[in-house]
Amino acid sequence: MVDIIVTDRDASIHRLDVEDGQSLMRALTGAGLDVPALCGGARACATCHVHIDPDWAGRLPAQEEGERELVSEEPSFIDGRSRLSCQIPVTTALDGLALTLAPLD
Ligand code: FES
Predict the structure, then answer these.
(1) Burial environment of residue 5 by CB neighbours within 10 A (0 to 12, 13 to 18, 19 or more)
(2) 0.85 surpassed by pTM
């Protein structure tokens, strides 16, 4: 299991114990957090947008161009920290990952 630390939009902190191999978006929605994920992970909606903690931003799998294009159109886009959680598989290498849910538009 992989420990993920999530700050929600009310600044409450949640510690998730996530199964290795699950998408980060599925972990967030499965924990009951407010992540609409309207497209179900098809990289078409950006409602799974998260801000990765600066200490972790460079340690995630590389961002594909399609993800970058979609998330960069979000009003709360932060260069180098904005990711679509549906595009990030959780692995043991991410144990301790910290992130914040991006504002909903
Ligand atoms: S769930 Fe729609 S882009 Fe991630």
Answers:
(1) middle
(2) yes
